[in-house]
Amino acid sequence: MKRSSYVKLTVCTLLVLGVSSAWAFQMGVPQPFSADYATKTKNGSNLGGKWYFSPPKMRIDVTSMPQNAGRSPFGGNVSMIIDGATQTSTMLLPQMQMYMEMHGNGGPMDQGMRNLKNLSNGACPQDATCTKVGSETVNGRSCDKYEITDKAGKKSTVWIDQKLHFPIRVVDADGSQTDFTNVKEGAPDASLFKVPAGYRPFDPAAMGGQRRH
Fold first, then answer.
1. How many helices (H) and strands (E) would you count in the chain?
2. Is 207 within the bounds of a domain?
3. CATH number of the domain that 40 lies in?
């Protein structure tokens, strides 16, 4: 897989996670936490890793990519730091000790940033209806279950943690499902939302020694 295609897949996959979670109907201000996450897409691919949330920032460490993504041209796992306040997304490339910074520009990236920024507003998404359909225990957490119907009539289901006010499970209209487990309440270390010392801006020339797909 070419580097540009891998970057596009990684960014889009992470934004799907962010948008899905940010679209959940909230009944309070989301609280900071960290957790493991796992997503199974509609085509059966799996994505997983670690999730750190401290609004308006979140960090997603990807340790398991869909099989059809191929081997990472960057030599290993990637992490994404998303700041909803500045609409900035930073991809960390640990194996290369480099980073790439991206900004919202009116496209899907920008929409994902806006959704994250507005996560704590306590409102149902625009042009959608949200209906509470019950309360359940999901992944060991007490949750309120909501159905979200968009203007096209497509329905998603979310289970909102009653304490964290954040989705513990999201089932999108296409059948994709994200689960958060091993939840640790409280703010993650602030250093997790910063580019590590010694990292340099991404240099395409560094790909010279990497195998191309």
1. 2, 12
2. no
3. 2.50.20.10
Q: How far is CA 163 from CA 136, 171, 194, in A?
A: 13, 20, 27
**How many C-beta atoms lie closer than 10 Å to residue 72's C-beta?**
19
Inter-CA distances, 143 with 132, 160, 167, Å = 11, 5, 8
Q: pLDDT of 113-141, one tens digit each?
A: 455 444 444 556 667 788 889 999 999 99
Residue bearing tokens 């954040």: 166
pTM of the model: 0.78
Q: Tell me, yes or no, whether 125 lies in a domain.
A: yes
Residue 50's pLDDT band (cuts 50, 70, 90): very high
Residue 169, strand partner residues: 159, 179
| Burial of residue 57, with CB atoms counted within 10 A of its CB: 0-12 exposed, 13-18 middle, 19 or more buried | buried
Number of domains in the chain: 1
- Residue 213 in any domain: the answer is no
3-state secondary structure of 186: coil
In the DSSP assignment, the letter for residue 154 is -
Closest among 20, 63, 24 to 41, alpha carbons compared: 20
pLDDT at 208: 57
Of the two residues 46 and 25, the one the predictor is more confident about is 46
Which among 88, 91, 96, 97 has a CA at the least distance from the CA of 78? Answer: 91
Average pLDDT of the residues in 19-33? 63
Residue numbers of the domain that contains 49:
3-197
